[in-house]
């Protein structure tokens, strides 16, 4: 994640609503609010600890510059992992 990278609408909305927040040299993401469907939240364990930490009923995950936000799988991945395990989908 980089402030210079173009941001889709859902990312801009996440910053506006404080679901995504820069804290010093890292970013904090409240994954449950980025995709607020109850079924999805139960699947990712929004009421337990997964990846980041536990804060009330929302799950926070921390990332650093250059990391990628995988909204589909509700996780932040390093650039190294992203380039090894993900394929870019070209815009048409």
Structure description:
By secondary structure, the protein is of the alpha+beta class. It has one domain. 28% of the residues lie in helices and 27% in strands. The strands form two sheets. The chain has a four-stranded antiparallel beta sheet. Strands 5-6 form a two-stranded antiparallel ribbon. Mean pLDDT is 74; it is low at 44-55. It comes from Streptococcus dysgalactiae subsp. dysgalactiae. This is Role in replication.
Layout of helices and strands:
Blueprint: H1 9-16, E1 20-23, E2 26-30, H2 31-34, H3 38-44, E3 53-55, E4 58-64, E5 68-70, E6 75-77, H4 79-85
Antiparallel strand pairs: 1-2, 2-4, 3-4, 5-6
Protein name: Role in replication
Organism: Streptococcus dysgalactiae subsp. dysgalactiae
Stretches where pLDDT is under 50 for at least 5 consecutive residues are 44-55
- Average pLDDT works out at 74
Estimated structural class: alpha+beta
Count of discrete structural domains: 1
From the N-terminal CA to the C-terminal CA, the straight-line distance is 23 Å
Strand content: 25-35%
Largest sheet: 4 strands, antiparallel
SSE arrangement, N to C = HEEHHEEEEH
- Widest sheet, order of strands: 1-2-4-3
Number of β-strand runs: 6
CA radius of gyration = 13 Å
User: How many helices?
Assistant: 4
Fraction of residues in helices?
Answer: 25-40%
- Shape designation: globular
